[in-house]
Amino acid sequence: MDVQSPSIRLLVDDDANRNALAELLEQRYDVLTDGPDLDGDLYLVDDFSFPTYRDRLESIKAETEPSFVPVVLVRREETHVDLDLTQGSEDGDRPLIDEVISAPVRKAVLYRRLSNLLVRRRQFNRLEEQNERLDRFASVVSHDLRNPIQVAQGRLDLVEPEISPPEREHVEVARESLDRMNSLIDDVLALAREGETVDDPVCVSLETTAMNAWTVVETPDAKLSVSAGTGAIVADPDRLATVFENLFRNAIEHGGADVTVDVGTTETGFYVADDGSGIPSDERDDVKERGYSRNGGGTGLGLDIVNTIVDAHGWSLAIGESESGGARFDVSGVEWCR
After folding, report:
1. Which EC class heads this enzyme's classification (predicted)?
2. Rounded distance between C-alpha atoms, residue 268 and residue 320, angstroms
3. What interhelical angle do 168-194 and 302-313 show, nearest 10?
4. In the chain, how many H helices and how many E strands?
5. What gap in Å lies between CA 28 and CA 12, rounded to an integer?
6. 180-218, pLDDT tens digit by residue?
7. Among residues 90, 192, 217, 176, which one has the least CA distance to residue 139?
8. pLDDT on residue 160
9. Rounded to whole angstroms, how far apart are CA atoms 73 and 110?
10. I want to staple 192 with a disulfide (CB 3.0 to 4.6 A). Which of 134, 153, 271, 287 is the partner?
């Protein structure tokens, strides 16, 4: 047997049924029937043995969250299946039984069902590995890069009084470069964090979130207008706030310190519009790209962060022109709280 083959743990107490299933599965998989540890890439249990193994399967599912561990139930036609076992809970918990196959088992059907579940398991495993790499990367960015930047900023503070005024401009250029590096670190960390899917969304007030986000953005003379009765949507509160913060910064960065920003709703979502100079139609796709900055002074990651958060929620982002000729960002596909 190829050691790389997926392993199927057979939880079938009847010797004849277990041997028949094992003979069928051994043509393609590594079949596990012995041993005290109930390990395996997929668990196959029959209706007769299910009561014996139910508690252990529930523990395995709970212990391996958020990984996907498929459980397949083989049942006789006259056996009743509790539908709650095949459906997830309202809290987002996955079902205990992922697939039900009727006996007598047909080889083609069995192979197809198991193959689909094992593909899903591999996809979950790859996603977990990617998230672990992102976490390690974020840790390096947060600690190993910030420390030398802080050292350089401290040294600039020490030597600046000793530098003659004509040479001070070099210090300012160096300080601006370090500030830009800090901004890049913040944005890269945000991308690493926001790229994950939204697992536990709640009802979030658009008006409150937008108003709070406005307070953390530098807005010397800018104005914010939020349409009354904007309602609430199902979202991650922190990530939704990040969407507004980045869109507000983008409006001020390109529209000027006295820009006016409007937040309102549509039938399918919400929008953020401003009365600035707008975004040329031939650049609207480019501004979503990572690292693209229209004025050359930004990090080019702000709208990428917005787009990443929108995707994580399953929404869509469209860029257009506001009624005053400025930029307008429409987020659609949201779920409203009723």
Report:
1. transferase
2. 16
3. 10
4. 8, 12
5. 19
6. 777 777 766 766 665 566 777 899 999 999 999 898 887
7. 192
8. 87
9. 11
10. 134
> Residue 228 — pLDDT band, cuts 50, 70, 90?
confident
For the chain, list the domains and their CATH numbers. 7-105 (3.40.50.2300), 197-338 (3.30.565.10)
* Cβ atoms within 10 Å, residue 183: 14
> pTM for the whole thing?
0.51
- Selection from 13, 63, 21, 22 nearest residue 39 by Cα: 63
Instruction: At 290, list the tokens.
Output: 């990572």
Question: What are the angstrom distances between the C-alpha of 322 and each of 263, 279, 315?
Answer: 11, 10, 20
Q: Give the Cα separation of 101 and 46 in Å (integer).
A: 9
Q: What pLDDT does 291 receive?
A: 45
| Residue bearing tokens 């990530």 | 239
Cα–Cα distances (Å) from 168 to 44, 153, 175, 176, 233, in that order, read: 73, 14, 11, 12, 50
Which residues are CB-neighbours of 1 under 8 A, at least 6 positions away?
Answer: 26, 30
274, with CB counted inside 10 A (0-12, 13-18, 19+), is buried
| Residue pLDDT, tens place only, 252-290 | 888 888 899 999 999 899 999 999 888 887 776 666 554
Q: What is the DSSP string of 242-296?
A: HHHHHHHHHHHHHH-TT-EEEEEE-SSEEEEEESSS---GGGTTGGGSTT--SSS
